[in-house]
Amino acid sequence: MKDLKENIKSALFGVAIGDALGVPVEFKSREIISENPVKDMIGFGTYNLPPGTFSDDSSLTFCLAEALTQEFDLKVIGENFVKWVHENYWTARGHVFDIGIATREAINRLAKGERPDLAGGFEVSSNGNGSLMRILPLLFYIIDKPVDERYQITKQVSSITHGHIRSVIACFYYLEFARQLISGVDKFEIYKNLQTEIPEFLKSISINQREISFFNRLLTADIFDLSEENILSSGYVIHTLEASIWCLLTTDNYKDATLKAVNLGEDTDTTAAVTGGLAGLLYGFDNIPKNWINQIARKEDIENLAERLSEKMKIIE
């Protein structure tokens, strides 16, 4: 088992590099991208930004990680999100260039003093992937807690921007998958484990069966057997979760997993960021292509953040 610092570094860089791979082709269709597939870290494109530029996915991931270097406090996490929008905190190159509608609305509510766990939208229409894309650092805070506590804390942190139960379940599934990856469990075994563990736990806390059924392709089928045309890559949280697990289970290294995610098209940066977080944990920092690491914006700052977060988590242990 890799040490804590190594896992944190792998997770943070895993998210950021996946994100940066997807930024130049965000919103392009699968058909358009297939004419000239992404094979390496490129720049410009959609936002005309240099190679290695990460977007809101990573910025908010780093805002969460930064908050976790202190005592756990939803208010601090929310304040960091507000600082990102209003002060360009943890941006790649000094400005915010991409933000989801639900996330923007939630951060506006936070800025006006709304309680953090009530700031996110609770409507069915508020199920974009904006909490899933940034949730991974929470893993290191909840990893040794009992499952009900892991769920409740995940719910609170998701709800800062996305409060609907569907977004919460997606974050919970993702972190449970990541948690078993860190323990060294085989990725297919994890997939099978969660098909029992997730529904059983959700039923035990009386979650509506209809909501659980939205996750049926993960919880009752073998998603890795599906062809690419059956995998969707929009900004809908379930599409992003399914696509990331599919990319992870149908490749065998970090590079192929993240490039596969990018080449699905549409919400390329988030699909690849969410995939990249898991792939980083599974394969480790050393498996991420060196030239990608060297191109990522704020590389030293990310390394420093990983160092500080691991020091804090060791104290909590």
UniProtKB/TrEMBL annotation:
The protein's name: Crystallin
Source species of the chain: Kaistella jeonii
Keyword line: Hydrolase, Magnesium, Metal-binding
Family annotation (PANTHER family): ADP-RIBOSYLGLYCOHYDROLASE, ADP-RIBOSYLHYDROLASE ARH3
Required co-factors: Mg(2+)
Gene3D superfamilies for the chain: ADP-ribosylation/Crystallin J1 (1.10.4080.10)
Family the entry assigns: Belongs to the ADP-ribosylglycohydrolase family.
Cross-referenced SUPFAM superfamilies: ADP-ribosylglycohydrolase
